[in-house]
Every structure is written in C-alpha cells, then in structure tokens.
Predict the 3D structure of the following.
Amino acid sequence: MDMQNKKAISVIREQQQTDPVMTMGQELSTLKISNIQKDALIQTMGEQLAMVKLELIQLKGGGN
C-alpha cells in the first residue's frame, strides 16, 4: 500500500489549528450552532407567551 500523505497526525492537527481558513470555519460553525439555539429559544418563548395570553383571555371570560 502506497501512502500519499506521510505526515504524522500530530503535524496535520497542528497545521489545522494554525490554518486561518480552518479556524474561521470552526468559528462559523460555532456561531451557526449558537444562532440555531437562539432561534429555538425565541420560538419556545413565543409559544409560551401565546399560551399565557390565551390563559389570560380565558380567565377574563373572553373565551366563553
């Protein structure tokens, strides 16, 4: 078996950590995950607010 890349794994990982494109990609991925979590939280809070509003309407007698 002929190996194409004969660098040690530690050398490859070190290069990946210092590679600005790789670092930017990791940061972009982290930001994307953070935004997804934020959007999910906002959606959940919106749903809870809607439920509270409906309960308030029912308590005031507007739902009958």
